[in-house]
Fold:
Amino acid sequence: MGDIYYAMTLAALAGAAIPFGAWLARFDSLLPGQLRNEANHWIMAFGAGALLSAVALVLVPEGIARVHGLVALLALVLGAIAALLTDIAMSHREGSKAQFLAMLMDFIPEAVAMGAILTAKPSLALLLAVLIGAQNLPEGFNADRELEASTSTPRGKRLLLFMALVPAGPIAAVLGITFFAGWPELLGTLMLFSAGGILYLMFQDIAPQVPVERHWSPPLGAILGFAFGLGGHILTL
Structure:
């Protein structure tokens, strides 16, 4: 039980960075116009880099360590397709919640992975919790600004929404330590599926240079390119 409580505590602290980042977003209006714009772009870029680090350093390496061959590639591509379909559905509602979705696709599987590896590698689990918190803070900041621009939800209700996400971390960590630890292939599939979704959302909505307005196929090409390189890497293992 001690490991379960420890995993829940780590996940809760990492998840608390989400509403904290969203709360900090209310102060960006204190900066003058150009400095505010540059600061917001910097934080957006930092959040994108944090997501990329989650994919490159945690989700994909840990995923392919548990799932091999074409199954790994299939999980990655299916995750991208799932994010594509969600993105299309949201575009019809004239709203953009890419950063919010990417945050969920990052936070939950990483919390599951943290719980799953805690008993075997407690120091790695602690490091992963620190990384999750470091990613969640700018992602919460950016997601709040994104929701402010695309919805009419008051700031107070948005903050409550972000606070409601915090318990998802401990729940995911408990699932990791009690269920996914005994099913490494399933854990690996979940991590690769999430990695594909995060990559799609980065290229489609978060990175500004790639998307063509109301066209969703170019980012999928980026995913296929990543999958091509990943396939070559898997063949060398």
User: Anything to note?
Assistant: The chain has nine helices and no strands. The chain has a mean pLDDT of 79. The CA atoms of residues 96 and 150 lie 6 Å apart. The two ends are 37 Å apart (CA to CA).
